[in-house]
Write a sequence for this structure.
């Protein structure tokens, strides 16, 4: 990056493949496809998550085990789930909850082997959440012998039963093969999860539409899915959407709106967004030119390993006081948590 005249849009666009390297080129994926399964998606018992257990419908008795889990009262959740299974040995939701507690070590010592046992008995009752968790455990060799084929089968069964997390993780496995037929199927699986408002799936589906992999190339569709991913808190989706808005790809060009998205993602700790908003502040595009802000965001990005020689040069004329302020702000922003 040597200059920043009117070519800023091209520089911004160049960030897109880096954000979605796992989809842009399977050979360049840093994590093997079978390992790039979700570790940050909601658990089957996360509040308002459409793919797992949900509170009883209005007018029905409250689910005490589920409610306790939601409140973080894990010992109570364990006790109530155990009581339910004693009353009904085929209570799959309670079995899956026990598996979740053992899997994460919530309220009880973590025990992947016991987690797998509970997931298996719940899976025997056709519980999609349990099948999805078993698939991930088989892929990792955690609680059960490592068996990628078995893991994929569990995910396929769970996805067929409507589990969004299973559909998403199955899509990640499929996209890693590089085969056109698998890419098309991956797009279908991502769509299932995306329709359930799973942010990472919305981002990845957007990448496929942007690149024309598994689906017809459609920048407008890509932008729409990136926007939904951003609305669901997905950082990669937010930055991708900002890039498209800045360049006017698939959406009307709007540098001010793009700057707002970059700034929001930068404040959440995304290094690429920090670098891009720094460049916008340095050039005065989408925001009022402010070299102190540019330097501060440049420092925050550099703290995460994303250096930029052009920005280093652009802010070299700051006064000692301005440099001190930029360093203070940069240090504060280096750790948004």
């Amino acid at each position: 990056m040597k200059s920043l005249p009117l070519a800023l849009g091209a520089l911004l666009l160049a960030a897109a493949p880096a954000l979605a390297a796992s989809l842009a080129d399977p050979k360049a994926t840093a994590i093997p496809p079978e390992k790039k399964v979700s570790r940050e998606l909601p658990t089957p018992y996360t509040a308002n998550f459409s793919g797992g257990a949900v509170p009883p419908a209005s007018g029905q008795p409250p689910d005490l085990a589920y409610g306790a889990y939601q409140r973080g009262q894990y010992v109570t959740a364990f006790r109530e789930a155990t009581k339910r299974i004693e009353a009904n040995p085929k209570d799959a939701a309670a079995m899956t909850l026990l598996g979740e507690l053992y899997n994460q070590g919530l309220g009880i010592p973590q025990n992947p082997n016991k987690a797998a046992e509970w997931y298996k008995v719940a899976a025997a009752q056709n519980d999609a959440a349990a099948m999805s968790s078993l698939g991930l455990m088989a892929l990792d060799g955690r609680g059960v012998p490592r068996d990628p084929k078995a893991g994929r089968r569990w995910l396929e069964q769970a996805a067929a039963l409507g589990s969004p997390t299973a559909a998403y993780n199955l899509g990640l496995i499929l996209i890693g093969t590089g085969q056109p037929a698998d890419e098309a199927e991956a797009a279908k699986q991502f769509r299932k999860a995306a329709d359930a408002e799973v942010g990472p799936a919305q981002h990845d589906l957007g990448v496929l539409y942007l690149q024309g992999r598994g689906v017809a190339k459609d920048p407008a569709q890509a932008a729409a899915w990136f926007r939904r991913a951003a609305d669901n808190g997905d950082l990669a989706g937010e930055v991708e959407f900002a890039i498209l808005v800045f360049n006017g790809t698939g959406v009307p060009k709007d540098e001010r709106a793009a700057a707002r998205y970059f700034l929001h993602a930068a404040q959440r700790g995304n290094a690429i967004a920090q670098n891009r908003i720094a460049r916008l502040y340095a050039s005065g595009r989408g925001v009022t030119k402010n070299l102190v802000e540019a330097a501060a965001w440049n420092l925050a990005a550099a703290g995460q390993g994303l250096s930029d020689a052009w920005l280093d040069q652009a802010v070299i004329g700051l006064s000692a006081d301005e440099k001190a302020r930029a360093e203070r702000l940069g240090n504060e922003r280096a750790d948004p948590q």
